[in-house]
Amino acid sequence: MAIKTVRGKHPGMTALKSALLTAATLLACGSAAGQAFPTRPITVIYNNLAGSGGDILTRLGSAEASRILGQPVIVENRAGANGRLGLAALRAAPGDAHVLNVVNNALVVFQPIADTAFKFEPEKDYVPVSVLFESPLVLTASPAMPFRDMKGLIGYAKTNPGKLNFAITAGASSHFLAERLTRALDIKVTLIPYKGENAGTAAMLGGQTDLLFGTVVKPLVDAGKMVALATTGGTRWKPFPDTPTLREAGVPFAAPVWYPMIAPAGTPAAVVKVLNAAFEQAYRTPEVAKRLDDMGFTAPSMAPAETLAYVRSELDAWRPVIQSAGIKLE
Predict the structure, then answer these.
(1) Residue 289: phi, psi to the nearest 5?
(2) pTM: predicted TM-score of the whole model, two decimal places
(3) Cα separation of 181 and 197, whole Å?
(4) CB atoms within 10 A of CB 187
(5) Could you tell me which residues come within 8 angstroms of residue 94 by beta carbon, excluding any fewer than 6 positions away?
(6) 286-313 pLDDT, tens per residue?
(7) Residues 6 or more apart from 56 whose CB is under 8 A from it?
(8) 42-57 confidence digits (pLDDT tens)
(9) Can you list the domains of the chain with their CATH numbers?
(10) CA distances for 295 relative to 169, 215, 304, angstroms
(11) DSSP string of 198-221?
């Protein structure tokens, strides 16, 4: 008996073909999106002064990222307004990530807590791309002071309340760390705001201030123009191997300064992923990695989701500290 084969559409095969077609379309779209970015030069705004450690490393990483992305990556300095001046360009930019900001944790963590009028929330107002690099700060003193360690600082400050001048940059990490330090030690000092670390350093060298949280100060410490008292990292800082951390000196906290790259709100996840990969690769290149190491910085490796989680965890950790201390920005 002959068996007749009926050729027709099998429901299962039709569904399979449809699924495969959909997957292929999505992959093609994703590939096209990746190839479409960037379509023109990228502007990276560094929200601080030229010549600082963060500025130097932003420029080095951006030069490498330019090679990786195949488009110029141009760094612009826009300092001022507690580091917020550069945010105007980010807020006005379309969500295609051709305008980016490199900021520090003061702008995304400390200031939104201390200034209730400053609304700046992750995902709502910006998209975190990556934490590009970080470093501790070093607490330094003028060599004119009669102390050379934390114990001496505490004793002098207790005996001479309000006499010590502490150079800060208003709204920057140095401001919040100085506030937290003086409260933790229960000492009274006078906080004097300067326009950036360079200005505070010049003031110390000129004899106008006594204490400073600094980053690029090793040459001055080595030359005897500053005295290193402690560093703010969780472990000893490579440029200052003989200088204790604050925790080792009996101060119960650690707080490095970290520098995230942020993109405009609404930037597609695929574009954020491209940027994250490019800058992660840039900071792993031998030349940039060596410069990081020489300056005492490290480059954390964080995916976009990890960066977002880190920002949120830091907000949660610092909010009770800043609020209980009554630290406010006007």
Answers:
(1) -60, -40
(2) 0.81
(3) 18
(4) 19
(5) 264
(6) 999 999 998 889 999 899 999 999 999 9
(7) 291, 295
(8) 999 999 888 888 999 9
(9) 38-134+258-325 (3.40.190.150), 138-231 (3.40.190.10)
(10) 21, 9, 25
(11) HHHHHHHHTTS-SEEEESS-HHHH
